Please model this.
Amino acid sequence: MITEPKEKVILIGVFETGDRSAGSMEDFMHSMDELAELSCACFMEPVTLMMQQLGHVNNALYVGPGKLEEIREQIELYEADLVIFNDTLSPSQLRNLQDGLGIAVMDRTSLILEIFQTRARTREAKLQVELARLKYLKPRLVGMRKALTRQGGTSGSMSSRGAGEKKLELDRRRIDDRIAELTRELKDVEKERMTQRKARQKSRLPLAALVGYTNAGKSTILNALVDRYQGQDEKRVFEADMLFATLDTTVRKIETGGNRDFLLSDTVGFIRKLPTGLVEAFKSTLEEVREADLLVHVVDYSDPHYREHMRTTIETIADLDAGHIPMLMVYNKADLCGSNDMDPEWDDPDGSNPETITAEYPKKLAQSQNGSGNICGSLAISAKEERSIDLLVECILEQVYGDYLTADFLIPYDKGNLTAYLMEHAKILEQEYLPEGTRLKASCHRADIGRLSEYIL
Model:
């Protein structure tokens, strides 16, 4: 099998000592490691990593002039095809860097957009990614097209513009037209999604949404539940040990029996410095998060930077106006952790305080509230093990059916449709046929108890 040679890329980052929000050097190095993983996920080959400490990034070049010369030397040494920078570059920085380095330049945002474009499968995801790419590309056309001729003349009139300048103007118009077209198409798709969502809400089935940092194991958990309760291979989703393996939001019905089924959705993973345009473009898809009855926050506990990943996820959820939804913390990949890896006394804004994991997992963990009232429980699991999946389902059911109450109903025989409704949407504990009608002792949602209150014994 013949494989295409991978592009050789050089990774560049600036640690801003004058920016308090930049975090520690350890955080910066983790960000650079992530950049390397992102480039590998885009089928590139990182050949070297270069970094510089500055008070603030250079407004013209991102790096200092001396570092630019070093980068040129590394390009020649490694015969690199591409240079990738760890932050979002301004249009002028992009233009100056391409002029100064003589090869193609990308930033972290364009790299993530490239991965999203490669992985998008559904029509909605493809539209969302294209919209984000075009909005990112429009102000950067000049910097990304070195071959175009420059503007001729000095009058500034349209007649004085060179061929390249006219082409840029034409490209901008085409991009504007395409953005308007994509926006219209996405509104139509959003209407279809709203129709599907209303149908699910009408069914009264609770919805749990898997959220978390990319590659935390969300798709693995969804597939494990599908295998456990459905056994249908066609219902599985793609999973792989890589960043952003899946982009498309998938909803599956988990049939646990006893009329205690629920819907489980798998959403796109989050990451530090996730492009704003992508968050905006994917908002209709991420509506599943806002409409959920429970957020299942999956954490890759084997990752040394899991706390930072948790913060990023919680901040993104807050940006989506979903911070009020009950959240179940799931510390996944416990099988890869040592017995003393989990810090028993760390204080984080997410409100969780996990115990030390021992060989005794899966298990529920002690919980303390540190001002975040939406954390409703936590557990340590390995998504690869059946016992862990059983415990996870037990915890989900405890939460999503927490609003369910038990009541005795006496339904007249001429109201058979109500009997059928309860049989479908409630857990029937007792059933008896009396002269006056059907007596049902059922565990059902508060809303159903209110609606059928006149039939309660």
